[in-house]
Structures are given as C-alpha cells and as structure tokens.
Amino acid sequence: MLIIKHGQVAGLLTGREKEIVDLVADAYERHEEGRTVLPHSVFLRFPGRPRDRIIGLPGYLGTSPGDGTPGGEVAGMKWISSFPGNVAGGHERASAAILLNSLETGHPEALIEGSLISARRTAASAALASRLLLDGRRPSGVTLVGTGVINREVLRFLAVVHPHLDSLAVYDTDPERAARFTADHARLLPGARVRHCAGLDEALAAHDLVSFATTAATPHTGIDACPPGTVVLHVSLRDLTVPAVLGAHNIVDDPDHVCREKTSVHLAQEQTGGRGFIHASIGALLKGTAAPVPQDGRPVVFSPFGLGVLDLALARFVRDEARARGIGTSVEGFLPGRTP
Asked: Which top-level group of life is the source organism from (predicted)?
C-alpha cells in the first residue's frame, strides 16, 4: 500500500494547472462516451446536524487499448467530509481520502490525502466550463461569491485559463473573511483591480463571469443583476432559486447525478416535472455532440455535481507521479499474506 500525504500531493500538483484541466476534460469525454462506471454518491448525514456530511464517491474511469487518451483505467473511491463549523475553529471545512484499487486483483494499492485533489478537480472543471461557455469571449473580470478554499482554487485555475484577467470582484457574508482572502491570494491574479462588494447584487453586476462557492444549503438568490450573457459557475449547487435556473441556459456534468440531493437543478426538475431546461452536459459540448449554447443574452449556468471520475483521474496522476519519483510511504503487510 502506497500512502501519499497532503504535502506530497501539493508538491506533485504545484504548477500543473494546464495538465489538470486536460485530465478533467479527458475524464468528461470518457464519461460522455460511456467509458465510466459511476454509481450515485452516498451521503452520510447526522441527526440534528444538517450542515455536516460525509460523502462517498465510488467510480471507475476506463479507457480503450490504443485510443491515445492519457493514462490508463483506474478504480477507487473518494471519502470526503464537509463540516462547515470547522472554519470558525481554524480548521479546514473539508477533508478527504482517496483509495485506489488494483484492477488486476481488486486489492487496495494507494491511499491518498484527497482534499487538494478534490478542490483542484472542482476548480479545473469550473475553469474548463468557463472557457467553453464564454465561447471565445474575453471576460470583463471575475466575481467570486464565497471566499473559501474552493474559490481560491477557482481563481488559481481561471488565472491560467484566462491569462488576461485583470479585474476581481469579491463578496462574502463575512467582509473580514473577504478581505483576508484577497490579501492572502492576490498573487493568484497579480496586478488585478480588486473590488470588495457590499452586497450580492453589486457583486453579480460587476462582471460577466461569476463563481458561486458557498456553504448555502437552500437557494437564496436570483441572477437578474448579472450582465447579459453572464457565465455562472454554480459550483456550490444550492445558491440559485428555481426561477433563476429556469431563466438560464443550463449545462451540467451529468443530469442523473445533479438532479439529486435538493440542488437548485433538482428543485427545478421537481417543479417542472422534467429536465427540458437542461441544455447539455459539458461532456457532450466537449465532444461536439450537443448544439452550442445560444448566445442570446440569457445567463449560462454550469452546475457540476462533482463526478468521482474526476477525482480518480487526478488521483491516478498523483499515484503515478509519486511512484516515478519515489515519493510516498510504502506500507508492507497491510493486506493479509498468502498462507503456506
């Protein structure tokens, strides 16, 4: 069993943003082609603690011999907790472990600290979607709603995907946290004009690219304040009201996955009785099997549930890099040995 710690994962992923975006795009395309097995995520919740949860994401990311896609097949599971109250105590909100299994024996072969993998695959998927959905337009800047770890990583990847970004608007329900965020992460968008917004509508009106990454449990906002044609990266999934969803062009990672667990998209399905408001999956847009999103001034909302195959793609990358560089701790005797 190979154990790879958080700091080692960070070292292996540092400066690899473009590669990570490519890995995420490849995983989406494989999923669209039916080369994945992806059961629904399992949510473990606790009585009287509606904000706390631990989620299990099992999956298999396959390939075809000689098809030229990067990396081979991989199977495993991410086990990730979200305890928002941790932040007030000075701890990370999320923690995760990813277990990879051998596809020859089924034996577990690598245990990888997964919080950074999870955050960066999420951010890479958002940045990829922004590039795809802006369709060649240069964004006026970016608005971040929520100033936690996820939007930090979103900013990191947006800076790579849109190298000319020079304007940032920030809104958080805690203004001091927003100020700390920009002070700590100004290096991610050097030289940018930074605007701290006093209200959500002010933030939404600031730019035509918006990223929601909050801990909201129920919808609380529309997006009428956004400029025409704004691309909304609805990473936290539960911020937008049903009318906001129905008034937008909606792109998802997988309709069956995202229409669960009271996401805004799920609530829109419950209200309308169908999924006709979903324009396409991001995989279909990448493959060119779905019609392009109309450029008619309506907002475009990307709602990614977070597919476990993205975690597997990055975890496989980390495992392979660690093996090649001799990084990590090999634990012998973890599994029962063969008896004489």
From this structure: Bacteria
Helix (H) or strand (E) holding 151: helix 149-161
Q: Which two tokens stand for residue 37?
A: 């097995």
DSSP H helix total and E strand total for the chain: 11, 16
Place of tokens 């600290």: 113
Q: Is the pTM of this model over 0.90?
A: yes
The reported pLDDT for the residue numbered 170 is 97
Residues near 52 by beta carbon (within 8 Å), at least 6 away in sequence = 45, 46, 81, 82, 83, 84, 85
CA–CA separation, 188 vs 84, rounded Å?
24
> Between 6-13 and 115-134, two packed helices, what is the crossing angle to 10 degrees?
30
What does the pLDDT read at residue 340?
Answer: 47
Closest of 75, 85, 88, 5 to residue 53, by C-alpha: 85
Dig out the tokens for 305 from the structure.
């549930």
Q: How far is CA 257 from CA 28, 133, 136, 306, in A?
A: 14, 21, 29, 8
Residues 6+ apart with CB under 8 A from 93: 82, 83, 84, 86, 87, 148, 149, 215
**Is residue 330 within a helix (H) or strand (E), and if so which, with residue range?**
strand 329-330
DSSP secondary structure code for residue 238 in this structure: S
Q: How far is CA 186 from the centre of its chain?
A: 21
Cα–Cα nearest to 321, from 8, 97, 65, 6: 8
Asked whether the beta carbons of 61 and 27 are under 8 A apart, the reply is yes
Enumerate residue ranges in the chain where pLDDT < 70: 64-71, 338-340
Do the beta carbons of residue 231 and residue 209 sit within 8 Å?
yes
Q: Which helix (H) or strand (E) holds 76?
A: strand 74-82
Contacts of 88 (CB under 8 A, 6+ apart): none
